[in-house]
Design a protein that fits this description.
alpha+beta; 3 helices
């Protein structure tokens, strides 16, 4: 059974299949070829609330890199074409209580 990966901040980008890269704190166990369920929200569900699946994805590659090394091209691939790298880093740090120079797991995926 594939694991669930939450895309609560980018649900619409996932529905439109515009997002092909995600950055995560953790998920070190992933490897190319792993299949996952992209879901709206995986944790913090209220009593009776169910996981809402978006689609299935397959990991193409993953690597660790400093968050602040993101490029404009990867902002687009993350689903935020309007953002500059510094804006993306600020948003990510605010949402995840992270620091710009710390490593994150850059995960590239394809839709199934």
């Amino acid at each position: 059974m594939p694991r669930n990966m939450s895309f609560s901040l980018t649900t619409e980008q996932m529905r439109r299949r515009e997002k092909t890269v995600t950055r995560r704190i953790g998920w070190a166990f992933l490897k190319a070829g792993d299949v996952l369920w992209a879901v709206e929200k995986a944790q913090g569900l209220k009593k009776g609330e169910k996981v809402k699946r978006i689609c299935m994805i397959r990991v193409v590659s993953q690597r660790w890199e400093p968050l602040n090394s993101i490029t404009k091209d990867d902002c687009v691939r993350e689903g935020f074409p309007e953002m500059e790298p510094a804006q993306f880093v600020e948003m990510f740090c605010r949402a995840n209580r992270w620091e710009p120079w710390k490593d994150v797991n850059r995960i590239e995926f394809e839709y199934l």
